Amino acid sequence: MAGLNIEMPSMKLNDGTSVPMIGYGTGTARAKKSDGKVDRNLVEAIKMAIKMGYHHLDGAEVYNNEAELGVAIKESSVAREKLFVTTKVMTNIADIPNAINESLKKLQLDYVDLYLIHAPFFTSSDAELQTKWQEMEKVKTDGKAKSIGVSNFLQSHLEAVLSTAKLPPSINQTEFHLYLQRGNLLPFMQSKGITMQAYGPLTAITKAKPGPCDDILASLAKKYFVSEGEICLRWCLDKGVIAITTSDKEERLSDYLRATTFSMTPKEVEDLSQAGQAKHFRAFFKNKFSEEDKS
Questions:
Q1: Could you tell me where the beta strands, DSSP code E, fall in the chain?
Q2: Which of 55, 56, 118, 157 is catalytic?
Q3: Residues 36-92 pLDDT 10s
Q4: What is the pLDDT of residues 4-40, one digit of tens each?
């Protein structure tokens, strides 16, 4: 399917910014143990994704590859204003003003489109979360990020931030897939105007087989002439959730773009959601949750 000419749909955030509904992630397998020398293989992989139409690029300081993302952006032929670039603060959460400056330097950018607190687990204090969010608000008012948000936040963390925020988070990026639907988190976020962004959206087929969704996924893939991975991505999109995915294979990246070319019926989306509730599987931050905790 390489060479698809697809116009990527977008989601409008609560601050008016528009975000492409499928993003290319530079974490997990693409993360480096330390900054060090620029990895040209990663630069070329990101450039390939950009060329294919992945203009939403998801990075983070903890991935240690912001420099590669910056080089790829600079070497691509796509105008900066057509790209949506995300990075996140975790390693240097104690000093957000310096952290954003360091990230922008590595990215060779004047601003990012989205800046996220990578996780809330650096503190158990609502007051500290609120203080850090005030620092995030200043990043936005200083023009260093067009939108600000959080990642891996539960409802309790969001409630703490919202209780004192002048600018609400635009996005909460979290692990979200058929086998981790996170209880009431999505409807709560929607009620507050916060968009959910999913990482690990393909987990049901890449890490959690066999499972109760297998037969439904296979049947829907056959019906729509796509792969099961594309059905997983489409399920997110049909639920109003932005999806972050990745691959170093051009054909697979091209195939994933087909998820934007069809919609499932509401019943199909609900059938998948209901089947997924029968299994619980968490791929990330396992040490922060009990095995029974589905939040």
A1: 10-12, 18-20, 22-25, 56-58, 84-89, 112-117, 145-151, 171-175, 195-199, 242-245
A2: 118
A3: 789 999 999 999 999 999 999 999 999 999 999 999 999 998 999 999 999 999 999
A4: 567 899 999 999 999 999 999 998 766 657 777 899 9
Q: How far apart are CA 204 and CA 200, in angstroms?
A: 9
Q: Clarify whether 256 is annotated catalytic.
A: no
Helix, strand or coil for residue 277? coil
Of the candidates 173, 193, 194, the one whose C-alpha atom is nearest the C-alpha of residue 86 is: 173
* Catalytic residue of the set 63, 115, 179, 199: 63
Distance CA 69, CA 24 (A): 11
Cβ contact 22:33 at 8 Å? no
Q: Which of 205, 123, 134, 113 is nearest to 156 (CA)?
A: 123
63 noted as active-site residue:
yes
Measured CA to CA, the distance from residue 230 to residue 25 in angstroms comes to: 16
